[in-house]
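Reviewer 2 asked us to include a model.

Predict the structure of this chain.
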Amino acid sequence: MIETFEFINAEFPWFVTTLSFFIGAIVGSFLNVCIYRIPAERSVVFPGSTCACGKPIAWYHNIPILTWLLLRGRASCCGERFSVRYPAIELLTAILFCVTWWMYPPVVAIIGFLFISFLICATFIDLDHMIIPDRFSIGGMVIGVLISIGFPQLHAVEGLPIMRNIEAGVLSIIGALVGAGLVYWIAVLGEVILRKPAMGEGDVKFVGFIGAFCGWQGAVFAMFGGAFIGTIILLPLLILGRIFGWKQKVPTYEDADEVSTAAGSDECEVVAFGSQVPFGPMLALGGLVYFLGGDHYVDAYFTEFVRSFFGA
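Predicted model (structure tokens):
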């Protein structure tokens, strides 16, 4: 089947690239369901999509991106507005799938679709609830290791069949351990210095997930590169928020890493905009940049650093 994809991709690249865009839009629609339902511990399969008024949404009113545009952002049954974030996530997923297919061979691209889907879900759930569910961190970490063993091309490992599978699995495990360990000790030191929690356990596990897919270099870049890129994006917003006195609502539950606690709490407090910022989106951004081309520069930097450090 992979050979068929490669043949079609070679002969009709525009067709497969366009197909990946539509697949991404459909997956993005499903990710919207996951982002909304998983923190509330609801099934992402049943029941089907419903409007805020409780009426089921017909399939022809549930077409990704297009439906929102045709209905001008309003529900067909009651006229209630629904957020532009829904088509935005669908479009974002579609574009990222398209870019991934364009950059990678079919096997790695399909694996990338899964990796990107996990990043998007974790990002928006963390933005909404200040949590990263374990199914995206621990579950994603385990899936990353198993996929690495089964498809060593994810880590660009070559050689004899069995040996390259083992090597890729080891690289994935090292990536997960380095990523989780790095963030854990940074969190511990941050708590000692600041005398308050610097990061949640969800962030620790999430970087482990990124490391399982991207190796230790990707995990390190997700931590430091993601923080740098995120700060560049966030700083202007914080300045505007301070100027205009923006406010934000944040959950008041004690354990921000427990999904069940988040789902069962409707209490929020209003605080100054930017006073509490989830770190998960920054980590996800760093992992995404690394996966979509940043690996060439990051890996070259680490190679040169090791060569200079050890004098090799």
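Residues 24 and 97 are 5 Å apart (CA to CA). Residues 254-265 have pLDDT under 50 and may be disordered. We have added this to the supplementary material.
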